[in-house]
Amino acid sequence: MHFEILVEDQSGKKALGVLVPEIVGKEHTVKIYAYKGIGRIPKNMRGPNDPSKRLLLENLPKLLRGYGKTFRGYTEDYPAAVIVVCDLDRKCLITFRQEMLDILNACNPKPNTRFCFAIEEGEAWFLGDLNAIKSAYPKAKDAVLNSYINDSICGTWEKLADAVYPGGASALFSGGWQAVGAEKSKWAERIPPFMDIMNNQSPSFCHFCTKLRELAGVA
């Protein structure tokens, strides 16, 4: 099967580039596209006013329409699917999922699509595997890691920063959002190679794995 995976930033692309082949197996083809943030769903559903901004949700209506047409060229023996992965942040999951489904249902033809959300942020998937974090960061603070409740709305990247970054989230954020983004990118490079995808405690990561395996026909 062929997977087209859309993520909202480069750190997500780095992490999934390691994790997806482990989830579905090496016999499938995967392309991962990173955007420059999540943005907002355009009101007119036609696409962004400024495509150069490369914001995921603003481009999503146009992207899904395009995939609907492109995927017609794939056969039953080699099907294709698009996976949209984004952070839930503090949105309502039910409402946000329905907004995404509305975009998909407006497509004719509709591409085979799955929407997956990291709750609250992508770092929740790392925090679902504390052993991986400890392997990547042996000096990580156990007290901070053990205080985390999986997929809780708690300031997820801040929690991980408090565990692994010298001085914690406040020290990291003192360098501004550019410094935060650079550190998130490092986490996405260092932690996923140690992750045990079969024993992750993040429900949203397990949901992501289940959807990919169902599509790939992996038991």
Give the overall average pLDDT: 94
Secondary-structure element pattern, one letter each: EHEHEHEHHHHHHH
Oligomer: single chain
Secondary structure tally, helices: 10
- The poorly predicted ranges are none
Structural class: alpha/beta
CATH class of the largest domain: Alpha Beta
CATH architecture of the largest domain: 3-Layer(aba) Sandwich
Global shape: globular
The CATH topology name of the largest domain reads Rossmann fold
As a whole number of angstroms, the C-alpha radius of gyration is 18 Å
Instruction: List how many beta strands DSSP finds.
Output: 4
| Main β-sheet description | 4 strands, parallel
Please tell me the total number of domains. 2
In which order are the strands of the major sheet placed? 2-1-3-4
Strand content: 5-15%
Fold and architecture overview:
The chain is an alpha/beta fold. The chain has two domains: 2-119 and 202-216, Rossmann fold (3-Layer(aba) Sandwich), CATH 3.40.50; 123-197, no CATH class. Helix content is 47%, strand content 12%. The protein is built from ten helices and four strands. Strands 2-1-3-4 form a four-stranded parallel beta sheet, sandwiched between helices. Strand 3, helix 3 (93-105) and strand 4 (113-118) form a beta-alpha-beta unit. Helix 1 packs parallel to helix 9. The longest helix is centred in the N-terminal third of the chain and has 15 residues, at 10-24. It is globular, with a radius of gyration of 18 Å. The chain starts with a strand and ends with a helix. The model has no long low-confidence stretch (mean pLDDT 94).
